[in-house]
Specification:
- The protein contains six helices and 15 strands.
- It is α+β, with helices and mostly antiparallel strands.
- The protein has a 15-stranded mixed β-sheet.
């Protein structure tokens, strides 16, 4: 009896499909998926192109800082963000010895992806690794190299599809930063071997995007303890206001002072630790006459002493040598004699010295001299030994020996 075989499918033949044919919707979806992935890969390649990223970073940082910024290498990835290597900031294109203001080994830049595509860079933050700042003062013009920085482009302008409508300063975190000082003398760079190590952050103000507030800790190579600095800086106006605590006068921070103040401190052998509750540096006022040597800047420096020491030179008490009619020629102290007189040394100095480009104000000063407490107030109309001096000195219990060392330093009338 013949057995019947039931065939449930068509016999195999060449071209026979192993799987059922997909519908039109599935085929369209596959094509769209492939096209989307290809577009994403192409966009990623375009966005992370090293040359394009480097040009974008140089353009953004140049407008944010004001000086010309060059980047050696740039790399952008989804996981690591933007990394810039071998970054240099110059104040101008003259290639002068003091043109280079800042170099950094690496900058890690965090840029929101949507912000980078839309041009909104308000959320940018920069981690600067091993930045090196070179601050150079000119012996001829008495100005600093950073004063030649062009003003940053922080004003509103027409927005393009890939161009931000406003350049907003980024948040900056400093790690293992270093500030070096030098002086430009006859076109040659004379470096100061007292660098300062800095750690801290700079945060742009929400209401004023061009204004930075900062809080940093710094320590010089010769300093026993560190110094804290807080304040604000406004790069477009060339202004800085800071408060410094625990400053060692004999350490590296003297290089931060205006030149005339630094030289005055050195002449008077000021020692000890001080507080600086108010430090302001800005452009010179148009309406004010600059009487001092600070031709390039306007400044106000308030120093608070708590137990320091300082010296007073004899020629500052006498002023320029003059011959008084009622004084015998043998009693007249000449400039040569003044030069060999020892300085008058004061200990346990307390009070405030206020320095400006016009001169110095002594406010509520208290000094110890040979066991006597002196209360001093007055002003000095300049920074040279011959500058006008006005002092008011009070002492309730003055103790003098038989031959006080300071008497030859006094004017003839007082002697």
């Amino acid at each position: 009896m013949a057995r019947k075989v039931l065939m449930t499918s068509t016999p195999w033949h060449p071209g026979y499909p192993f799987r059922p044919r997909g519908g039109r919707v599935r085929r369209i979806g596959s094509v769209l998926t492939l096209a989307t992935l290809s577009a994403l890969i192409s966009a990623y390649w375009y966005v992370t192109d090293s040359k394009r990223v480097r040009q974008f970073a140089e353009h953004y940082l140049t407008e944010a800082v004001g000086g010309r910024v060059t980047v050696g290498r740039a790399r952008l990835s989804i996981f690591e963000g933007l990394r810039l290597d071998d970054v240099t900031v110059k104040v101008d294109d003259r290639n002068a010895p003091d043109s280079t203001l800042l170099t950094a080994t690496t900058l890690h830049v965090r840029v929101p992806l949507l912000g980078a595509l839309s041009g909104d860079l308000s959320g940018v933050s920069i981690l600067a690794v091993e930045p090196r700042a070179l601050l150079v003062s000119s012996a001829e013009t008495r100005t600093w190299n950073f004063q030649r920085l062009p003003r940053p482009q922080t004003t509103t302008r027409p927005a393009g599809p890939r161009q931000p409508s406003r350049i907003t300063l980024p948040q900056v975190l400093l790690r293992n930063a270093r500030i070096e000082f030098a002086e430009l003398v006859s076109g040659k760079l004379v470096r100061n071997n007292t660098p300062i190590a800095v750690e801290g952050n700079l945060i742009p103000d929400k209401d004023k995007p061009a204004l930075y507030t900062f809080a940093v800790s710094a320590r010089g190579a010769s300093d026993k303890t560190g110094t804290s600095l807080t304040g604000w800086t406004y790069p477009p106006g060339g202004q800085l206001s800071a408060r410094m605590r625990n400053v060692d006068l004999g350490g590296s921070f003297a290089a931060l002072l205006p030149r005339e103040v630094r030289e005055w401190w050195e002449r008077h052998a000021i020692e000890g630790k001080i507080e600086i509750p108010d430090l302001y540096v800005g452009p010179p006022a148009d309406s004010a006459e600059t009487k001092g040597d600070g031709r390039g800047i306007s400044f106000r420096l308030v120093t608070s002493f708590e137990g320091g020491a300082m010296s007073l030179r004899p020629d500052e008490l006498r002023g320029r040598p003059t011959t008084h009619p009622s004084t015998e020629p043998s009693a007249v102290t000449t400039a040569r004699e003044l030069a060999v007189l020892p300085p008058i040394r004061f200990e346990n100095v307390r009070g405030a010295l206020i320095f400006t480009e016009s001169g110095i104000e002594l406010k509520d000063m208290s000094l110890m001299y040979e066991g006597s407490r002196l209360e001093v107030a007055g002003s000095l109309g300049g920074y040279s030994p011959g500058s006008p001096l006005s002092l008011r000195i009070a002492c309730r219990d003055l103790r003098l020996g038989e031959d006080p060392a300071f008497v030859p330093s006094l004017p003839p009338e007082v002697r």
